[in-house]
Write a structure and sequence with these properties.
Radius of gyration: 17 Å
Helix content: 40-55%
Shape: globular
Strand content: 5-15%
Order of helices and strands: HHEHEHEHEE
Number of strands: 5
Number of helices: 5
Distance between the termini: 59 Å
């Protein structure tokens, strides 16, 4: 029994993610994708299940410190403004776990987003 516990402990300690880290399970995979992009920026909001703040904090620890995060409040119309457009221009913009409202606002302004694995992770298509 002790040997089995030690094997389990060793395996979980070396893993990027583990089954019991449900909400943030995909963060290492997402971080690799974002980190590989030229001049990335991450856009999100509170999320449909209200867990995005914690998820974004977790994700921020996996990325270089110079990658900006933009957390949009309830006013998703801001993503349609020139100020927002200027903020993301020249960058590879990603959105992770956005609410339905934020996703719709982004698609209205920038067209259909490129879906990336895992679920609820997209790259904005910019002209």
């Amino acid at each position: 029994m002790v040997v089995g516990s030690l094997i389990s402990l060793f395996s979980s300690a070396r893993a990027d993610a583990w089954w019991n880290k449900d909400l943030s399970y995909e963060n290492p995979r997402v971080a690799r994708e974002i980190g590989a992009a030229p001049s990335p920026i991450v856009i999100s909001d509170i999320g449909d299940d209200y867990t995005n703040t914690g998820d974004m904090i977790s994700l921020s620890y996996l990325l270089n410190k110079d990658i900006p995060f933009v957390m949009v409040n309830d006013n998703v119309g801001w993503v349609k403004t020139e100020q927002f457009h200027n903020l993301i221009q020249g960058r590879t913009a990603f959105t992770y776990r956005p609410t339905k409202n934020l996703r719709q606002a982004l698609e209205q302004s920038y067209g259909t987003m490129q879906h990336l694995p895992p679920e609820r992770f997209w790259r904005l298509r910019q002209n």
